[in-house]
Amino acid sequence: MMLEKILACIKELNPFGYVLLEEEEASEELFFLGNKIELQRAKQVKRHTLTLYKDFKYNGESFLGDAKVSIPDNSSTSEIRSILSRAEVMASYVQNKPYPLAKPENLVLETSFEPSPFLEQDLAFWVNQIAEELLSADLTQRVSLSAAEIILSRGSRRIITSEGIDCRFPRANCYLETITSAKGTGEEVELFKKRDFSSYKSGELKEALENQGVLTLHRAEALKTPRNFTGDVLIPSEHLKTLFQYYYSQGAAQSVYEGISGFSMGGAFQEGDGDKITLNLLPYLPASPCNQPYDPQGVLLKPVTLLERGIVKSFWGDPQYSHYLGIPVTGALENLEVGEGSSTQEELRGEPYLEAVVFSDFIISPQTGDFGGEIRLAYIKDGNGRIPVTGGSISGNLVDCQNSILFSKERVREENFYGPALSRFKGLTVAGVS
Amino acid sequence: MKGNSTFLRENHKALKELIGLLTERYPWASVLGTDCSGLNYEVTGSSFKVSESMWSERGFVARIYYRNSYFEYSFSSFKPGGVRGIVEKIAHFVDSVSSVSLAKEVLTFDPPAEEKIFLQEGFPLEEDPLETDPGKIFTIMKELKDKILAGSKLIVSAKVRYEGVRIAKVYISPEKDLSQAYVWSQCYLFVYLRDGQRTRRAFRGYSGARGPSLLMDLESKIEPLIQEGLSLLETEKIRPGEYEVILSPEISGLIAHEAFGHGVETDMIVRGRSKAGEYMGKRVGSPLVSMRDGAASCRDVSSYFFDDEGTLAGDTLVLDKGILVSGLSDKLSASLLGIKPTGNGKRESFERRAYARMTNTFFCPGESTFQEMLKTVSHGYLIDKMISGMEDPKNWGIQCETLFAWEIRDGRLTGKLASPVMLTGYIPEVLGNITMVSRDLELSGCGSCGKGYKEYVKVSSGGPYIKTKMRLG
Q1: B451 touches chain A (CB under 8 A)
Q2: SS3 sequence of A220-259
Q3: Is the same domain home to A247 and A293?
């Protein structure tokens, strides 16, 4: 057994500390070209990742170095020894101030924690269920499915550390990619949608694909985004999720310690009349692909309130940077929950707006807050009703506009994000094309 | 450095046996074996880090041709059960899915046809990233980081990142027995500045088909990096609209990659996802524009001897003086289109499927100089430093985000800067509006290229300075 071989080699080396991850993963994958299967794949792999810690002194100063290496499956004992020895040498040059490693804690599973259904039955069963749902979607006459990918994987992660942590938990994820095309009055157009999830409700995927078909048709019939639009911009949850990467990054202990973040504990980061932001980090969100009880360093994950009504309440961090800042270790939580806003979606849509529904790619710089994307489909509402438009781009800076954002009361789930279904932004730049 | 992977050499016999046993059951089979290992070094204002590269992988992927279809099985070990055990697992998978999929429609492929080739190749390995003294690498990186931090009081942090990767692969089928090995490296310099509530970040990236010697030439790059960082504290908003632009070699490479590279990947064409299929042999750009792609078209981070499907490296002329003349193919899409694969079948790792992907993609040099181009611009921008790009090959749209747009007025750079800037456009217009192409040719291979939002592979892209018109926002 690889695990025993690796542990025996670690014992021989007797390092200051270690974190060993063993991951097993199996997948079944279906690739569609139109409605026909193009390729079928399966995977069965095992991975081992070791972080080796070494304490040492240099010029009279104490350091705790570490090196993270992978140990390929089926490595021989001599190969493992060689990899460990190289890791130890590398760690001896990593001059980081000492910090304590994660300690064991008793896991108390949240009562709401529901294991992924993908952990039961054969993978092939679920892949076929998902494929059947996609192929049964009722796309209108002018819309078709160009391509689809279903990659369903499951397995387990075991974490063993020198501090006595030994935990194992299952993991499951489905990656689903659908591309729909539609013919309107002009050229044929397409829309791309990808989603990761660890569970779904029967009929949900079919409905999502049918909705994608409707949006594709709207893109096919869209007018060019006008050059003179200067109103507010509505951004739905799918892209709001991207914008919250900025707050997640600003709240990271490392960003704060290195002075890249402007956040300070207890500090207010919003002024003005907009909705005040609340952001919680959670170990578990229904259907999220990021659910896990422990992070990869063996830190037991518990809910953390990062921001509360525009005030920085805490930071999140690993053992190293949490120790440097003198704050509790939270570990790396990957599920984000954003508090509700003050208006209904209907109220947010009450005034003229441009609602950006699909971008080519919507991106944000987690350090600066600059964000933007090219518009594949948006709707403009003015005195003439709600009209689909396409082309051009939207850009802005979150620091500049965070004081006036309005969020909807209604909240929805998007992969590892649960937050307002809709948000309204002032002062963004819309670069139209006609 | 021929056959430098002991692991792959030791498993060569088992892989031959695997192909022998599989072809007793199925009409055709192949296997790709990978042994790629790399290290990622990072030095910031507060810490040191060394970790395994995201490009490290070791394992196998078998491809089976059966009932006119293809099946694949990825595995990391022959244990337990040895070669026969893997054959049984593959057989179980193929039997189970081929019976289930009978209920669905399946694409059919012609039987694979390969030429008989034996090849053992490797680029000279003067410096192995894994064997280089880590103390030496950290010392150079720390000196670079300290120099950046000392550049201004407004600098709050700095980061230097180096990644070096050693690649070894074998491909075996009834007709082919191929092995190859090579290295590549990349390095980033980052500077973070704060002025009041605002954080700004500037960066420079360097890459090449070489080892840690890449780090040796970077000291002279620090002062320009700091100046760029400081200039980002005083930027102006650009007025959205269409402008005359000069694209730096890095950005012309980004345009080549996003605008045309993705659109001529033939798996996009067979999916009906690219307009390029309708334009083969037709004019799509100015006569000044030619474009190439190929693992054998130059020596950079995506230069190899054979791709992940065992097709030998190509050097493909994609655009010839504005005429679209060729796509970039993997084996499956080439088979469906009835064309020869071009050596562009690449996988993120042995764990993933192969797609048609770019390698080293670039616009070919022209005859102008940068200064000549500058003089012709009355009001426009010099665009430089890629942040990101996204393709839309179906509708020939393009989205690129860049860090710098330096204002040009009356043929001169004014020193005024807009940042960041979103470039959008309709590809035939962008390529058709090209009026000048410089004599330069620079390629850059930092970062990675995805297919949509996944399947990351190493590519390089570049070109000369190009003058055209684009929409900025």
Answers
A1: no
A2: HCCEECCCCCCCEEEEEHHHHHHHHHHHHHHCEHHHHHCC
A3: yes
**Residue A88, CA atoms < 13 Å, CB-side half-sphere:** 14
Tokens linked to B274: 């690219």
Instruction: Give the separation between CA B136 and CA B213, rounded to whole angstroms.
Output: 11
User: Cβ of A365 under 8 Å from any chain B Cβ?
Assistant: yes
Q: Could you tell me if A191 and A296 lie in one domain?
A: no
Report the run of H or E that residue B74 belongs to, with start and end: strand B69-75
Statement to judge: residues A199 and A248 lie in one domain:
no
User: Does A296 share its domain with A180?
Assistant: no
Question: Which residue from B minimizes the CA distance to A262?
Answer: B197
CB contact set of B340 (below 8 Å; sequence gap of 6+): B329, B334
Q: How far apart are CA B291 and CA B463, in angstroms?
A: 9
Determine contact: B7 vs chain A, CB below 8 A. yes
Question: Using the beta-carbon criterion (under 8 Å), do B471 and A431 form an inter-chain contact?
Answer: yes
Low-confidence ranges of chain A (pLDDT < 50): none
Mapping DSSP to helix (H, G, I), strand (E, B) and coil, where does residue B146 land? helix
Distance CA B229, CA B227 (A): 5
| Chain B contacts in chain A segment 371-390 (CB below 8 A) | 372-374, 376
Amino acid at B125: L
Residues 6+ apart with CB under 8 A from B345: B307, B308, B309, B311, B329, B330, B331, B354, B355, B356, B357
A265 in the same domain as A164: no
Give how many domains chain A has, as a whole number: 2
User: A431: which strand partners?
Assistant: A393
Rounded to whole angstroms, the Cα distance separating A277 from A76 reads: 53
Q: Compute the nearest-CA separation of A107 from chain B (Å).
A: 29
Q: What per-residue confidence (pLDDT) applies to B217?
A: 84
The pLDDT tens digits for B211-248 are 999 999 899 999 999 999 999 998 988 888 999 999 99
| pTM for this model (two decimals) | 0.95
In whole angstroms, give the CA distance from residue B283 to residue B304: 31
Round to whole Å and give the CA distance between A26 and B75: 9
* B76/A74 CB distance under 8 A: yes
B2: confidence class by pLDDT, cuts 50, 70, 90:
very low
pLDDT at B265: 96
For residue A124, the domain's CATH number is 3.30.2290.10
The distance in angstroms from the start CA to the end CA of chain A is 65
Chain B CB within 8 Å of residue A431 CB: yes
H-type alpha helices, B101-217: 134-149
Please report residues of A whose CB lies closer than 8 A to that of B96. Answer: 124
Is beta strand B397-409 parallel, antiparallel or unpaired with respect to B412-418?
A: antiparallel
Answer whether the bond into residue A296 is a cis peptide, omega within 30°: no
Question: Which positions in chain B touch A433 (Cβ < 8 Å)?
Answer: 424, 471
What is the tens place of the pLDDT at every residue in B418-466?
999 988 888 889 999 999 999 999 999 998 999 988 999 999 999 999 9
- Based on the number of CB atoms within 10 Å of its own CB, is B52 exposed (0-12), middle (13-18) or buried (19 or more)? buried
Indicate the residue among A158, A192, A216 that finishes a domain: A216
Residues 220-249 of A with CB under 8 A from B: 227
B101: which chain A residues are within 8 Å (Cβ-Cβ)? Answer: 37, 40
Contact B157 A189 (CB under 8 A): no
Point out the residue among A35, A39, A431 whose CB comes nearest to the CB of B70: A39
In terms of residue numbers, what domain contains A317? 223-434
**Are residues A181 and A242 both part of a single domain?**
no
Pairing of strands A422-425, A406-407: antiparallel
One domain, residues A42 and A144:
yes
Best mutation target, B199, B255, B453, B471, to test chain A (most A CBs within 10 A): B199
How far is the C-alpha of B294 from the C-alpha of A147, rounded, in Å?
26
